[in-house]
């Protein structure tokens, strides 16, 4: 995949992670830029900008910061959805009634989070107790 | 470690990590943003459908969020610099996301979907502003080495102190009036004091306290006070003696002293009168008028003394 050297290039065409050799489809991320307003993002621009600055990333366009915060949000929400699936699987697999018991209160525990994260390649090991 | 479950309410601050941490301003800087991320994580979990979450899992997700953002920034910067640029562009970020395994195609769909929950920004505290009525004077402008977003200097009266001195009154009339009134007050106070503390005589028969007069003390030897010089006169004689020794010769002094001890010749008067201008000038006028030999300043014989500071250490003939 190649990046053009000029400054503003909204029509960049990088390949996706599992792309075949050949012309890659145009990325749809620029379409996300005008639609994403500041009110949608949960993470404030200042907080994202603070962490980006700590990494050495100085953003010229505030829309870039919103894009990054949106990507980070989606990352977390994907993990949360996976953990919810795990939680629901554990609830219904044990044979409890589907009407009321486990439908209301889903609690995110480490037992649900760990397998959800392992699918992303993130392995967490928390100690059960502190000595 | 206790698996404490905490509710992930919308907009709630979620859990607190380590309530016994000591926070200095530098830590507060980081903690504030960390708490914001915790709020975000909590709201995302609520949106996903969780009612509550473990403290450890919220911490884990917060840490992941922070490191994810930092990693995107670092990687995007690296890609940007790899192509000899300094300003990251959109393509750098897209490449970064792809490299981190993020599916960018689903991003617009997610952006449209996540219009459900909005977190209000935390309240911004304003700088305390002194009201216009209380400000006094112009604030000093920032010197060039201080950036403009720093707070302003305080009012100059808080750190500048200018001692002021009142000019003493030099008007002749006012000074004369002041001197006269002070003198009158001092005399009156002194006489009253002596009347109150000493013996008094009264002019009126029945009313004793209204106009008290200081009782006269009859002396046994009335003329003694006329002969003896007062302390002040003796002190002035000391000073004039020491100044005379520099000006005149010893023989002249001796002749004068001998003539004073005779006490009565007329030629003394003229010689003493001629010597008068050399003495202290304040008594010249009086001595010219009152030509009383008993009121003239006494001329003592010249005695060599070590101490000439005006304190009378030994005096000839006085007991």
From TrEMBL, chain A:
Q: Which residues cross the membrane?
A: none
Q: Where in the cell is it found?
A: Nucleus
Keywords attached to this entry? Nucleus, Transcription, Transcription regulation
| GO CC terms of this entry | nucleus
Q: Would the keyword Cell inner membrane turn up in this protein's UniProt record? A: no
**Family, similarity comment:** Belongs to the TAF10 family.
Q: What is this protein called?
A: TATA-box binding protein associated factor 10
UniProtKB/TrEMBL annotation, chain B:
Describe the location of the Bromodomain associated domain by residue ranges: 29-106
Q: Which GO terms describe its biological process?
A: cell differentiation
Q: Where is the composition biased (Polar residues)?
A: 270-283
Q: Which Pfam families match?
A: Bromo_TP, TAF8_C
- Record InterPro entries: BTP (IPR006565), Histone-fold (IPR009072), TAF8 (IPR037818), TFIID_su8_C (IPR019473)
Assembly, in brief, is:
Component of the TFIID basal transcription factor complex, composed of TATA-box-binding protein TBP, and a number of TBP-associated factors (TAFs), including TAF1, TAF2, TAF3, TAF4, TAF5, TAF6, TAF7, TAF8, TAF9, TAF10, TAF11, TAF12 and TAF13. Interacts with TBP, TAF1, TAF6, TAF10, TAF11 and TAF13. Component also of a small TAF complex (SMAT) containing TAF8, TAF10 and SUPT7L. Forms a heterodimer with TAF10. Interaction with TAF10 is mediated mainly via its histone fold domain while interaction with SUPT7L is via its C-terminal region.
| Similarity-based family | Belongs to the TAF8 family.
Name recorded for this polypeptide: Transcription initiation factor TFIID subunit 8
The source organism is Homo sapiens (Human)
């Amino acid at each position: 995949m190649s990046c053009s050297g000029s400054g503003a290039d909204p029509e960049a065409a990088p390949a996706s992670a599992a792309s075949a050799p050949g012309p890659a489809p145009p990325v749809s991320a620029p379409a996300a830029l005008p639609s994403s307003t500041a009110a949608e993002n949960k993470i404030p621009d200042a907080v994202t900008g603070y962490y980006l600055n700590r990494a050495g990333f100085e953003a010229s366009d505030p829309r870039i910061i919103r894009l990054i915060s949106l990507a980070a949000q989606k990352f977390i929400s994907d993990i949360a959805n996976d953990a919810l699936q795990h939680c629901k699987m554990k609830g219904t697999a044990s044979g409890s009634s589907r009407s009321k018991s486990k439908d209301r209160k889903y609690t995110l525990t480490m037992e649900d989070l760990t397998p959800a994260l392992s699918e992303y390649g993130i392995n967490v090991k928390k100690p059960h107790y502190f000595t | 470690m206790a698996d404490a479950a905490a509710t992930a309410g919308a907009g709630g601050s979620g859990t607190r990590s380590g309530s016994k941490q000591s926070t200095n301003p530098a830590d507060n800087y980081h903690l504030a943003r960390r708490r914001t991320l915790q709020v975000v994580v909590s709201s995302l979990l609520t949106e996903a459908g969780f009612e509550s979450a473990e403290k450890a899992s919220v911490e884990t997700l917060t840490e992941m969020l922070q490191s994810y953002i930092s990693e995107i920034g670092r990687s995007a910067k690296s890609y940007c610099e790899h192509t000899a640029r300094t300003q990251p562009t959109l393509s750098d970020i897209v490449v970064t996301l792809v490299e981190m395994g993020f599916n960018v195609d689903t991003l617009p769909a997610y952006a449209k979907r996540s219009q459900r929950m909005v977190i209000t920004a935390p309240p911004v505290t304003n700088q305390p502003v002194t009201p216009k009525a209380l400000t006094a004077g112009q604030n000093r402008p920032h010197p060039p080495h201080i950036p403009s977003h720093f707070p302003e200097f305080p009012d100059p009266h808080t750190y500048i102190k200018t001692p002021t001195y009142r000019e003493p009154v030099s008007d002749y009339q006012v000074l004369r009036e002041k001197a006269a009134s002070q003198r009158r007050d001092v005399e009156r106070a002194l006489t009253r004091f002596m009347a109150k503390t000493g013996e008094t005589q009264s002019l009126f028969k029945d009313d004793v306290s209204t106009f008290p007069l200081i009782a006269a003390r009859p002396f046994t030897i009335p003329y003694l006070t006329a002969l003896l010089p007062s302390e002040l006169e003796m002190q002035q004689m000391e000073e004039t003696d020491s100044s005379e020794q520099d000006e005149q010769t010893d023989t002249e002094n001796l002749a004068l002293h001998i003539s004073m001890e005779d006490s009565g010749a007329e030629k003394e008067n003229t010689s003493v009168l001629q010597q008068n201008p050399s003495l202290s000038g304040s008594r010249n006028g009086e001595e010219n008028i009152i030509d009383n030999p008993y009121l003239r300043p006494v001329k003592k014989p010249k005695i060599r003394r070590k101490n000439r500071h005006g304190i009378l250490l030994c005096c000839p003939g006085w007991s």
